[in-house]
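Input record, target 12 of the design panel.
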């Protein structure tokens, strides 16, 4: 269970982690990445020795054998790695590491199953400078999306404001999510790998904004609100520089 007392990272407000855990499940479009079912939950305070009730999230337990950092990544399927990459890029995950990717080895007839959990640090609201993608260290991140994956990415809704607002996600997080989804779609359409798109999203140096940050800044600086057409053009121009 994730509660409202979780400590924040840069780009997050304390007490909102559980909202993001629930949002992750709802935004895993068609269950593609395999985020376990997650619901909002209120626990009676008396059960925890507190005066007031505690709000948090409750996630369905998924049987697994280990965490991804317990085994060499060469055992993972490229397809499974790309599914998590698609999810993390779209969610602007700031905390994807080997401890929150579960590994299921139970079905020896199928590729190793990867299950993403722990999404309290997705959808940042004040900054996207601390994105963290463990899978960029895996060789599978440099494989290309299949045609089926490209169709899935193209089908992703760029505007999820209704469901996110209902869950209590801040407006700035919703806007960043929209920009991220568009950038992912543009990268996939240009033939970039998850690693190349991750390079576009992340900062190479802590004090220097990423290309994605630059494009968002320009789009937000236009009169009349976010200029998504300008954003798409700028993303295309920047991403073409990443193509060998």
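The sequence produced for target 12 reads:
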């Amino acid at each position: 269970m994730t509660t409202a007392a979780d400590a924040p990272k840069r780009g997050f407000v304390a007490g909102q982690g559980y909202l993001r855990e629930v949002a992750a499940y709802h935004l895993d479009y068609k269950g593609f990445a395999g985020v376990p079912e997650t619901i909002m939950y209120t626990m009676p305070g008396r059960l925890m020795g507190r005066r007031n009730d505690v709000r948090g999230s409750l996630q369905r337990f998924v049987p697994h054998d280990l965490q991804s950092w317990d085994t060499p990544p060469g055992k993972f399927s490229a397809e499974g790695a790309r599914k998590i990459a698609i999810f993390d890029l779209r969610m602007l995950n700031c905390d994807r590491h080997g401890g929150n990717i579960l590994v299921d080895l139970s079905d020896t007839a199928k590729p190793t199953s990867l299950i993403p959990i722990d999404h309290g640090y997705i959808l940042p609201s004040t900054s996207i400078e601390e994105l963290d993608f463990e899978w960029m260290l895996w060789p599978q991140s440099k494989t290309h999306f299949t045609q089926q994956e490209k169709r899935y990415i193209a089908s992703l809704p760029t505007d999820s404001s209704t469901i996110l607002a209902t869950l209590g996600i801040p407006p700035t997080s919703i806007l960043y999510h929209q920009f991220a989804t568009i950038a992912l779609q543009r990268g996939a359409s240009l033939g970039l790998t998850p690693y190349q798109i991750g390079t576009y999203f992340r900062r190479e140096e802590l004090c220097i904004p990423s290309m994605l940050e630059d494009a968002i800044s320009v789009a937000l600086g236009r009169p009349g609100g976010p200029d998504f057409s300008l954003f798409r053009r700028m993303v295309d121009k920047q991403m073409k520089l990443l193509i060998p």
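Helices lie at 17-27, 78-91, 147-155, 161-167, 171-189, 194-201, 211-220, 228-240.
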